[in-house]
Write a structure and sequence with these properties.
The structure holds two protein chains of two kinds. Chain A is an alpha/beta fold. Chain A has 14 helices and 15 strands. Chain B is mainly α. Chain B is built from 15 helices and two strands. In chain B, helix 1 packs parallel to helix 8 and helix 1 packs antiparallel against helix 11. Classes of the chains: A alpha/beta, B mainly alpha.
C-alpha cells in the first residue's frame, strides 16, 4: 500500500476517534418485551423524541433491549459502559433490573439515571440518581387524603413482588404520622385469575379504605372484586396504575379510584402558575402527536426527565473533562448533585448529595377516575 | 373463617378448578396420543381471550395474521413433502383447501366482521374459527416432522413453540391487559352466596365439554382411534389407524378446549399476553396430580388444585403460588415410588 495513503488513513482514523469523543453518549437499557413490557414500551418510546444536543453538546443515544430480565439488564449496562464507552447509563423498567444496573454502575464508576423507584445502599446510591418520585412522597399524598377523610383502618392488597413490597412499606411509612392502621397485607400476582380469597379477607377486616399496590391494568382486578363483593369504602391506587388501559379494563368498577401521580398525566388541568405545567403540556403534546391521542403516561416522562437532568449537568462537567473519559463520568456525577431547579415533566428537581431525587410536593397530584377519565382532584 | 367465607372460597375454587380441569384433560389427551407435553396449550387461552376482547372493541385481532401465515407455512411444508413424494397433483386440492383457503378465508372473514360489531355469540364463533385451526397448524409445522422423536425432544420443541407464540402474542396484543364484557350480567342469590352468571357458564361449559369428550371417546370411531393410539401407538398403526390423523385430531381438540377456556375466563379476569402460560401450567399440575394417565383423576386433581389455590389465597396470599406448585412434589415422589420403572421410549 502507498505509504502516503496509509498515513492519510491513519490520520483519518485518529480524527474519527477524536471526533467520537466530542459527543456525550447516553446508554439506555429497557425491556419493551417480557413481563415488564407494558411499562417498558412507554419508557422506550420517549427516546425517539429526545433532543440531539444537550447543554450545547451533541448527544448520542444507544438504546438496548433487555426483555425485562435483570441479568440481561446488567449485561447490557456492562456492554454499554465497557464497549460503547457511554458517559451515563439509564434504565430499566422493573426493580430487579435496576438493582443489577446499579451494581454495574457502582463497579465501573458511571453515573446512573434510575428510571424505577428503588432504594440502594449508600455506596451504590453515590452513583445512582433516581428519577421517579420516591414512593413515600407519592403515597404521602394518599396518606394526607386519608387523614382528611378520617380513615382509621386501611386494608392493603398488592403484587406479590418487589413493587407490592415497596407500596406496602410506603403506606406503612406514613401510618403513625397520619393516624391510620394497616389491617391486612394481602398479595396477588398479575396473572391471577381471581383475588376472591384476598378480597374476602379484606372484607372480614372491615377497613375504612383499601390501598392497592398493583400497577397498570393489574391494579384493576382487586378493585373490581372489592366492588363486586359490595365494598363501599374508598379505594386508593398508586402512580404505577395511572393509565388509560386501567380504566378500559376496570370499566364502571374503577369509577372513583384515587391515585397519586406526576403532574404529567393531567397538565391541562393544572393551575396556570404550576411550575411544571408548561414542560408537561409540551411533552404530552409531542408524545401524543407521535404515539396517538391519549397515549400519555408517567413512564415516558421519567425517561425525558432523566435526559433533562443529564443535560443540566453537562455544562459544569464539560469544564472539567472531555466526554468518554473516567474524569468526565466523575465530573458529571458531581455536577448532577449540584444542578438546581431542573424543571421536568414530573416536577422540579433539586438533587443534593443526600437526596439523589430532589423532588418535592410539586411532583405529585392526586387524580380520580371520573366518567372514565383520570381527572385532577381539586 | 366462618361458613360464609368457606362457601365463597369453595365457589371460587370450583370455578377456577373447572377451567384447570378442562386444560388438564387437553394436556393429557395430547400427551397420551402424541407424547407431546404441550406447553403452548396456554397460548390458545390467551389468543382466544384477547381476540374476543379486541373483537368487542371493534378491532381486528392479530390472531388473523398468525392464522393466515401459519396456514401458508404449513401449506408450504405440505407442498414440499408432496412434491418429494411425487404426489403433488393428488394432494394439491386438499392442501389448498385445508391450509390456504380455510385459514385465509377465516382471517378475511374476521377482518370483515371486526368493525361491524356483531352479536357477542357471533364474535365467540369467530374466535373459535380463528383459534381452533391453529392447533393442527402448530402440529403440522412443529411436531409432525418429529413425531417419532423422544419425549424430551418433543418437550424442547414445545418450549420453542411456546416462546414463539408468546412473542407473537406480545407483538399483536401489546403489553397491557384486556378484559371482555360478560355474556350475561346476571347474579343469583343462593343463601349467603351470590353467584355470577359467568361462573355458572364456566361450570356448565366444563361439564358439557367433559361429557362431550367422554361421548367422543366412547362412541365415535375417531375417539376410538385416539384412544387406541394413546394405549399403544405401534399396535394402532398395525391395525391401520393413521397416527398423523390422530395427532392432528388431538391438537384440534386441545386448541378447541384452550379456546373455550379462554372465552370463558375472558370476562372473569384481566388477561395479559402471557397469562395463558400460568393457567396452562396449573392445568398441567392438575394432570400430574391425576398421575398423567387417567382423565377422571386429572379432572379431580385440577379441581383440588383450584380449591387449594382459593383457600391459600385467603390464608397466605403471598405464598399462594408456592403452595400450589409445591403440591406436585409429594405427588411426584409418590408416583415414582409406586410405578415400576417404565422406559419412556418404545423403539420405532
Amino acid at each position: 500500500m502507498d505509504r502516503r495513503l496509509a498515513t492519510a488513513l491513519l490520520a483519518a482514523t485518529a480524527l474519527g476517534a477524536a471526533s467520537a469523543h466530542a459527543e456525550v453518549t447516553i446508554g439506555v437499557t429497557l425491556g419493551a418485551t417480557g413481563p415488564g413490557a407494558s411499562l417498558g414500551i412507554h419508557y422506550k418510546n420517549a427516546f425517539t423524541l429526545m433532543p440531539k444536543t444537550l447543554g450545547g453538546e451533541p448527544v448520542r443515544y444507544i438504546v438496548l433491549e433487555d426483555g425485562s430480565d435483570a441479568t440481561n439488564a446488567g449485561k447490557n449496562a456492562r456492554k454499554l459502559i465497557t464497549e460503547d464507552n457511554v458517559d451515563v447509563v439509564m434504565g430499566s423498567n422493573g426493580v430487579p433490573s435496576s438493582l443489577q444496573i446499579a451494581q454495574v454502575a457502582f463497579e465501573t464508576k458511571t453515573p446512573y439515571m434510575v428510571l424505577t423507584p428503588i432504594s440502594l445502599p449508600p455506596e451504590k446510591y453515590y452513583w445512582a440518581f433516581i428519577v421517579p418520585q420516591p414512593t413515600e412522597l407519592m403515597m404521602g399524598a394518599v396518606a394526607e387524603h386519608m387523614k382528611a377523610n378520617k380513615v382509621k383502618t386501611v386494608g392493603f392488597i398488592g403484587f406479590s413482588d418487589a413493587w407490592g413490597d415497596l407500596m406496602y412499606k410506603a403506606t406503612d411509612f406514613h401510618a403513625a404520622k397520619y393516624g391510620y392502621k394497616l389491617v391486612t397485607n394481602e398479595r396477588y400476582a398479575r396473572a391471577d385469575t381471581s383475588v376472591t380469597g384476598q378480597v374476602l379477607k379484606i372484607m372480614a377486616a372491615k377497613p375504612d379504605a383499601v390501598v392497592v399496590g398493583g400497577s397498570g391494568t393489574g391494579g384493576a382486578l382487586p378493585q373490581i372484586a372489592l366492588r363486586e363483593r359490595g365494598y363501599k369504602g374508598r379505594i386508593y391506587h398508586n402512580h404505577g396504575t395511572v393509565n388509560r388501559e386501567f380504566i378500559k379494563v376496570g370499566g364502571k368498577a374503577v369509577e372513583g379510584a384515587i391515585a397519586p401521580t406526576g403532574p404529567l398525566i393531567v397538565p391541562e388541568e393544572l393551575p396556570a402558575n404550576h411550575p411544571v405545567k408548561k414542560v408537561s403540556l409540551e411533552f404530552t403534546k409531542r408524545y401524543e402527536e407521535v404515539f396517538g391521542a391519549g397515549s400519555r403516561n408517567a413512564f415516558a416522562g421519567y425517561s425525558w426527565d432523566a435526559v433533562m437532568l443529564v443535560g443540566a449537568a453537562i455544562p459544569a462537567a464539560m469544564k472539567k473533562a472531555k466526554p468518554g473519559t473516567p474524569q468526565f463520568r466523575a465530573a458529571l456525577r458531581d455536577s448532577l448533585e449540584n444542578v438546581k431547579n431542573v424543571v421536568g415533566t414530573h416536577g422540579v428537581y433539586n438533587p443534593t448529595p443526600k437526596n439523589h431525587n430532589g423532588e418535592d410536593e410539586r411532583a405529585r397530584v392526586l387524580v380520580r377516575v371520573e366518567k372514565g377519565e383520570w381527572r385532577l382532584m381539586k | 373463617m366462618n361458613t360464609d367465607i368457606f362457601i365463597w372460597l369453595a365457589q371460587d375454587g370450583i370455578t377456577n378448578g373447572a377451567i384447570y380441569a378442562l386444560l388438564a384433560l387437553a394436556l393429557l389427551l395430547v400427551f397420551t396420543v402424541t407424547r407431546v407435553i404441550f406447553v403452548p396449550q396456554g397460548e390458545f387461552i390467551t389468543f382466544a381471550a384477547l381476540s374476543l376482547s379486541l373483537l368487542e372493541a371493534g378491532r381486528v385481532p392479530g390472531t388473523v395474521y398468525i392464522l393466515a401465515f401459519g396456514g401458508l407455512a404449513a401449506a408450504t411444508i405440505e407442498l414440499v413433502v408432496a412434491w418429494r413424494e411425487r404426489q403433488l397433483a393428488r394432494r394439491l386440492p386438499r392442501i389448498a383447501l385445508l391450509y390456504v383457503a380455510l385459514p385465509v378465508g377465516v382471517a378475511l372473514l374476521v377482518a370483515w366482521a371486526a368493525p361491524r360489531n356483531f352479536d357477542q355469540w357471533i364474535q365467540v364463533l369467530l374466535v373459535l374459527a380463528m383459534v381452533v385451526p391453529l392447533g393442527p397448524i402448530v402440529y403440522r409445522i412443529a411436531y409432525q416432522p418429529l413425531a417419532s422423536a423422544s419425549v424430551v425432544v418433543l418437550f424442547i420443541v414445545s418450549m420453542a413453540v411456546h416462546y414463539v407464540l408468546v412473542g407473537l402474542s406480545l407483538l399483536f396484543f401489546g403489553g397491557e391487559g384486556l378484559r371482555s364484557s360478560p355474556f350475561w350480567d346476571a347474579r343469583f342469590k343462593l343463601g349467603v352466596l351470590e353467584v355470577t352468571a359467568q361462573s355458572l357458564w364456566v361450570l356448565a361449559a366444563s361439564v358439557i365439554l367433559i361429557f362431550a369428550l367422554w361421548l367422543l371417546f366412547e362412541h365415535s370411531i375417531y375417539g376410538k382411534a385416539l384412544r387406541a393410539t394413546a394405549i399403544n401407538r405401534v399396535g394402532a398403526r398395525l391395525v391401520g389407524i393413521p397416527t398423523v390423523l390422530t395427532g392432528h385430531l388431538s391438537f384440534l381438540l386441545a386448541a378447541f378446549i384452550g379456546a373455550v377456556s379462554g372465552i370463558l375466563i375472558a370476562p372473569l379476569t384481566t388477561l395479559y399476553y402471557d397469562t395463558g402460560f400460568i393457567i396452562g401450567l396449573k392445568g398441567f399440575v392438575g394432570a400430574i396430580l391425576g398421575g398423567m394417565a387417567s382423565y377422571p383423576l386429572a379432572a379431580l386433581g385440577a379441581l383440588v388444585l383450584g380449591l387449594l389455590e382459593s383457600f391459600a389465597s385467603f390464608w397466605a396470599s403471598a405464598y399462594k403460588e408456592t403452595i400450589v406448585f409445591s403440591l406436585i412434589v409429594p405427588v411426584l415422589v409418590w408416583l415414582s415410588l409406586r410405578s415400576r420403572h417404565v422406559e419412556e421410549e418404545e423403539s420405532e
